[in-house]
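Colleagues,

For the teaching module next term, I've prepared a clean inverse folding example: a structure given as tokens, and then the sequence designed for it. I'd like students to try predicting residues themselves before seeing the answer, so please don't circulate the second half yet.
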């Protein structure tokens, strides 16, 4: 059976779940970011003489204790968001079924491509873009311009992943022969990157929130009418 068949999925409930989980994860990230910034300031890392950063610094304790919690919250947000994307894909296929357009990507593509090396750098964006375009004009999705909102979302996502990769490499260098060796330079780099990550992820979640609200509203309206919605330039961020 085609994934487009059946009743419209309730993207509202999953959108709310995705938003709730994302903001909960962000709250933890902001706390970590603020703790890192305060640690830098406390030890003279902002325009002053750099003082030794003791191993029992409050920020370092937060880093040590918060790793598992941060991963758990991220996993929760990821599951909710991927489920929402799958639901959005199913609804986009239902809308496309009212026209002659045949989507390139299946609903499960929105989930799978996030886990494919290298392809994950661009393919998920293309999948979500197609679902967005179909939701705005099922008969001729290509006429719907690429919204700046999605470009911002994907750009911030890639930047956040790049910072996370750099942080993971620094954390690896702080472990030697099973014991944690505190290196002053690397600790300040870790703190600065943690602060930057908090800023980037705040912007990411804000943009993602707008994407979820707009796309869910558009699909809800189109599915309620059960007719292909006409494309309106005002509905797309240029």
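(Answer key — instructors only)
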């Amino acid at each position: 059976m085609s994934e487009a068949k059946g009743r419209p999925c309730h993207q509202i409930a999953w959108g709310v779940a995705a938003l709730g989980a994302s903001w909960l994860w962000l709250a933890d990230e902001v706390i970590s970011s603020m703790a890192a910034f305060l640690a830098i300031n406390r030890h003279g890392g902002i325009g002053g003489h750099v003082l030794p950063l003791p191993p029992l610094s409050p920020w370092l304790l937060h880093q040590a204790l918060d790793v598992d919690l941060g991963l758990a919250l991220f996993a929760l947000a990821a599951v909710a968001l991927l489920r929402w994307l799958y639901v959005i894909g199913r609804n986009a296929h239902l809308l496309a079924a009212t026209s002659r357009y045949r989507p390139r990507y299946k609903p499960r593509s929105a989930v799978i491509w996030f886990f494919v090396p290298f392809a994950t750098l661009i393919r998920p964006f293309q999948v979500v873009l197609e679902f967005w375009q179909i939701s705005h004009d099922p008969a001729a999705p290509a006429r719907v311009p690429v919204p700046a909102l999605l470009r911002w979302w994907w750009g911030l996502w890639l930047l956040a992943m790049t910072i996370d990769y750099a942080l993971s490499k620094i954390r690896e260098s702080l472990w030697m022969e099973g014991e944690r060796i505190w290196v002053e330079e690397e600790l300040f780099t870790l703190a600065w990157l943690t602060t930057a990550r908090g800023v980037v992820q705040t912007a990411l979640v804000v943009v993602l929130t707008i994407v979820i609200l707009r796309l869910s509203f558009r699909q809800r309206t189109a599915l309620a009418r059960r007719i292909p919605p006409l494309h309106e330039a005002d509905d797309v961020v240029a």
